[in-house]
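Follow-up to my post from last week.
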Amino acid sequence: MVWESIREFLADPATWSGPGSIWARLAEHILVSIAAVVIAAVLVLPMAVWLGHVRKGSDIATAVVNIGRAVPSFGILAIAFMLLVQIGEGIRKPWAVLITLVLLAAPPMFTNTVAGIQTVEAWTLESARGMGLTEGEVLRRVELPLSMPLIMEGVRIAFVQVIATATLGALVSWGGLGRFIVDGFAQQDMGQLIVGAVLVGVLAIVAELGFSAVQRATTPRGLRVAR
Amino acid sequence: MRRAFRSRAVGAILGLALVVSACGSGDGAVDGDPIKIGSFNFNESVIVAEIYAQGLEANGYTVERQLNLGNREVVKPALESGEIDLVPEYTGSVAGFLGAEQSADPDTTWEAAKTAFEELGVTLLAFSPAQDKNAYVVTAETADQYGLAKVSDLQPVASELIFGGPPECPERPLCLQGLEEVYGLEFAEFVALDAAGPITVAALDGGEIDVALLFSTQGIIAANGWISLDDDMGLNPAENLVPAIRVEVVDAYGDDLVALLDSFSEALTTEDLTELNKRADLDQEDPALLAGEWLTTNGFIEG
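User reply:
Got it. Predicted complex:
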């Protein structure tokens, strides 16, 4: 019965073309996820890099990640949605989801960046300064490259979480792949529900693998583990 | 829009307090398995389920609450499988859902729904005079702008309007399907929101949708001066509130239980529902307390 239901959903032409198609929902989902991560990166990375460089932020970093874990994404989404509806920007608009996802993406990036830069050994920095590098050069040429694997790890964690959580948007009238899950559940259409859930899972795995490749490429040669 | 974030915890605690006090005032316990009472995911259903629950408790029955379960797609299988025993249903909607005949006549609709449901081990007790139908609601401005009073007035303009309702609406005979088949309405767009809840209300209030699926007993309609369009071609069947209960539970407890639930149904009116909904939705009063108050006012429990 489940297979039949899945086959039926996949055979429906509306599944493959039009505004409610898998392609349209996939594009919405990916777009909002990338936007959320990019915005979060622009907002928190400069501050995190600076805090790491001056070696001050480890307490803040811990606090941020703890708060980030405690904040309920669905609660933020509902509040943001209700406020945005009042100004006519709620229904079917991505803004409430975007705000929620930015808040979700920021903590792991912030923490990993602060921690990453701080893990650069003191003697490495001393050597760099001893060679006559300015503070800016120390940051650019020593700290950032050496901490890049950890920073990218933060971005990867954020992106995968964002992809999974963007499904919530369908609960407040937005699209994305969550639409198939919410509608499939409401209509007891198992096929639609399962296809939606599997697509989100596949997307998260693809993002995970993609980022691992980016992570490897941005790791300085000296730090790469021979394989 | 604070009402969306009302603390369920407070409700749960108050409800518990009521349970405890109601148990204390009962005149001797009735033996048997607890009666598991469920409800749909909107206030009216929770209130009526609480009326059943507290009313039964006051008469010595042991009940378990499983309220706010979800839509009919969730509740019906739960009732069939025995995860819940009793739920407040609506004659027309349940008849339609079971593929039985629906009509504007309460008796015919009830009979058809009861026959269909009994094949699944669930029966309908006597229905209440109280009705709650699907309502197609527009704001006063929209009504003025397009000259809308009846659902059929939408025919020339539907293609410019956005319709908002629950995600199951496109698959439902009393929602988009019926509007298309009976009235020939094809809206510019359908937006999946919630079951006449805070999201749909906010969307209509904010002008982001033009026509909303709400319930006829919702206090917000009159409070906001909205217009509930007259169902002039009779899409909606009779929608009397009715207890849907598993046959084996009726068999186990017998006529006393049936008589008790019948007495609640008989006393409940459409006006009561509208008032209870208004107080729950707009004044954010707790459904459990409202149910207790209704039972007291109507002499079912001592105040």
